[in-house]
Amino acid sequence: MKIFLDDEREAPAGWIQARWPDEVIALLKTGEVDTVSLDHDLGDDRRGTGYDVIRWIEEAVALRGFKPPHILVHSANPAAAARMHAGIAAIANLMKTRGA
Description:
By secondary structure, the chain is of the alpha/beta class. It contains 3 helices and 4 strands, in the order ββαβαβα.
């Protein structure tokens, strides 16, 4: 399954649309997500950002042995995208230390 998190852009054909981080996390918990594409700014920071999904994945990898999906970032916010890419790199490093 491919998940597209964005509050404005529509998901590409073959992708499942999500508007909020909790929707993405619920789908990640199924273990059936192979790719996730994340926007950062979702219109209501109290409900979360795309970075919150990255933080959840990082914690799940570190503490629960979660196998992360392929993670893409399509945010138009350069500073937030850089932070998200740093989080993805941290997840990759965790996977290396696990030998995965």
